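User: Can you help me understand a structure? I only have the sequence.
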Amino acid sequence: AKLHTAIIGISGGIDSAVVLGLLLRTKNVEKVYAYFLPSQFTSEDSYHAFSLLKEYVLNSNPNPEVIIDSVRLEDIAGVDLISEVMNRFPEIVKKSPLAKQNLQARLRGLF
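Assistant: Let's start by predicting it. Here is the structure, written out as tokens:
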């Protein structure tokens, strides 16, 4: 069965880049929406990787129509969810230097 539309979240990392690449190679999708959802804790490396991925995808003339864009996580939620959670559970955030990045990834799953 042919998909009319596919939506994928991309991080700029290798996993999401490979999944997006595979999705674009299939003949079973007409339109792909790929969204990068950064937050205040997104690293510059992630922004740079997203920029390179976007440039590559848009210049490679894939079969399906592709919309690839960046939307801040806080803008989607209408509130800074990461700061809200950090304020409610500061002891969890202090235990691990990766807690903010992990929290960011989990909150993306809500959208």
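Now, to help you interpret it: The CA atoms of residues 19 and 105 lie 17 Å apart. Helices lie at 14-25, 44-59, 73-77, 81-88, 90-95, 99-108. Let me know which part you'd like to focus on.
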